[in-house]
Design goal:
- By secondary structure, the chain is mostly beta strands.
- It has two domains: 113 residues, Immunoglobulins (Immunoglobulin-like), CATH 2.60.40; 146 residues, Sandwich (Immunoglobulin-like), CATH 2.60.40.
- 10% of the residues lie in helices and 43% in strands.
- The strands form five sheets. Strands 11, 12, 14, 18, 19, 22 and 23 form a seven-stranded mixed beta sheet that branches. Strands 13, 15, 16, 17, 20 and 21 form a six-stranded mixed beta sheet that branches. A four-stranded antiparallel beta sheet has the order 6-5-8-9, with no helix packed on it.
- The chain is elongated.
- It starts with a helix and ends with a strand.
- About 6% of the residues have low confidence.
């Protein structure tokens, strides 16, 4: 009798195992099933409980220096735009983004499903911000309706576009041959603004890089010129070393991307050159004389494409 009972017990265990195996085989053909901690999608990937639901997200926008609310406009992209981090880029193709307009310093993003998005954030008179956000999929977050009433909030500090009072670098000349001249001006960034540098255009306004008679002495007596903007420097003219950086428009462009100054800080503008000087003026006299006029204009542009300052170099 004992042996029969044991046999029946083994048969029962075998039957249970067979039923479990059949169930597993049948379930393997299903594309979605609930598991501990989440849900798998059609590809068998673990996703959150809000994965196919529109989920809110909030940007809190304020002025970095004053704390005042900033009413910004957010263009939200599914894919990173080609001109990402370039505020002068083309962000006009409305088919690629959804636009949200802020009010009282809040931008409610309420038409997107969970995932990573790229935000181009603008406000009139402010520098453009580029932000990557992740809208949660609900994993470990509890009830969706509770979350929607108080969604994740990302504080974003924005800064007004930098402004300054432009200065003129004015050289007082004395009679000398090959005299080294240099001067520095400080462009102070106005309070509560931020300058983000893009480029500087330096021109040959006077025509000093021309040697009309070809004798090796240039028309205005200048034979060396170096310009420094912040921590960026360039020798634009040094014919003794075959350096003449001016293009066909008598301009040279210096890249100053990465230069960032704000709220009372100073942008250094320094000019150094050598010239034969005199106290008389005359066309093509191969001397730099008092009254010859503007040697060069230094035009400084910010990342937004605005002309930040024009600095004339005058003798």
């Amino acid at each position: 009798m004992v042996k029969v009972s044991q046999m029946l017990w083994l048969v029962a265990i075998f039957a249970v195992a067979m039923v479990a195996t059949i169930a597993l085989v049948l379930n393997s053909g299903q594309k979605e099933m609930t598991i501990v901690g989440g849900v798998t999608n059609a590809e068998g990937e673990l996703v959150g409980p809000w994965s196919n639901t529109v989920v809110n997200y909030m940007l809190i926008t304020s002025d970095r220096f004053t704390g005042a609310d900033v009413d910004a406009v957010a263009k939200v992209y599914d894919e990173k735009p080609e001109d990402w981090v370039n505020p002068r880029g083309d962000f006009t193709d409305a088919s690629k983004y959804t636009v949200y307009t802020g009010s009282s310093g809040e931008v409610l993003i309420n038409k997107e499903m969970p995932g990573t998005y790229y935000v181009v954030l603008t406000a009139t008179g402010y520098n453009t911000e580029f932000i990557e956000i992740t809208i949660p999929d609900g994993t470990g977050r509890g009830d969706l309706s509770d979350y929607q009433a108080n969604p994740d909030r990302l504080p974003v500090e924005m800064t007004k576009i930098g402004t300054t009072t432009a200065s003129t670098i004015d050289f007082a000349l004395t009679n000398a041959s090959g005299k080294e001249l240099k001067d520095t001006e400080l462009l102070t960034i106005d309070d509560n603004t931020e300058f983000r540098g893009w480029k500087v255009i330096i021109n040959d306004e006077l025509g000093f890089s021309v040697d009309t008679d070809g004798d090796g002495n240039y028309d205005e007596g200048i034979d060396y010129m170096k310009v420094t903007i912040g921590d960026k420097s360039v020798v634009v003219f040094d014919p003794a070393r075959a350096v003449d950086e001016f293009d066909s428009n008598d301009e040279y462009t210096l890249n100053i991307e990465g230069t960032k100054l704000a709220d009372g800080e100073d942008l250094v503008v320094k000019v150094e050159f050598k010239a034969d000087t005199s106290d008389t003026a005359g066309a093509n006299d191969e001397k730099l004389g008092e009254g010859d006029g503007t040697i060069s204009y230094i035009k400084i542009y910010d990342m937004e494409g605005n002309l930040f300052a024009t600095v004339p170099i005058v003798a």
